[in-house]
Amino acid sequence: MTLLERLRTETRPAHDRIEKAMDLDRRIASPDAYKSLLMRFYGFHRAWEGAASRRAPDRAFFQSRCKTGLLARDLNALGLDADAIIQLPQCHPLMPLPAPEAVLGSMYVVEGSTLGGSVIAKEVGRKLGFDGASGCAYFRGYGRDTAAMWKSFGAVLLAASSPETDDLIVASAQDTFTVMHDWLCETP
């Protein structure tokens, strides 16, 4: 079993748990509900990106995948100014990221959610009329490059795989799902 297959298998319960708890239909039913959802995502990504960037095995690779700027752009399009965005609550506590391999495990969750974001972007467009320029840049992620970005991430993950690191990578992915669930699914 490859590391990607192991991650998919061992994080499936956590993935299903967050997907069920998110109640996405409710959270994209109105512009205000959608803005609240983006605010929660912003709080997660801002805190996570700050912590993970310090330990990322390849900083340029990591930074090319950061989403805080997309979320800030969406929130600005939905009426929040830069000062209000910066003051949004951030996710605490974060999962421990004791080594570069732990960042890769955590990135597995974040990059996987980017894949799912393209489906959400279509629903947001259909229900609310938002696109990449008017409040849905985050869920559009990498746009046409989303599949290629996932593939390149998978290659980096597989290159880092070893008997010494795989358990840490999987544990970090599981911890990230837990933190993300608790942060996104709690009522602000």
Automatic annotation (TrEMBL):
GO terms for biological process: heme oxidation. It comes from the Bacteria. This is Biliverdin-producing heme oxygenase. It comes from Microvirga aerilata. SUPFAM superfamilies: Heme oxygenase-like (SSF48613). It holds the Pfam family Heme_oxygenase. One of its GO terms (molecular function) is heme oxygenase (decyclizing) activity.
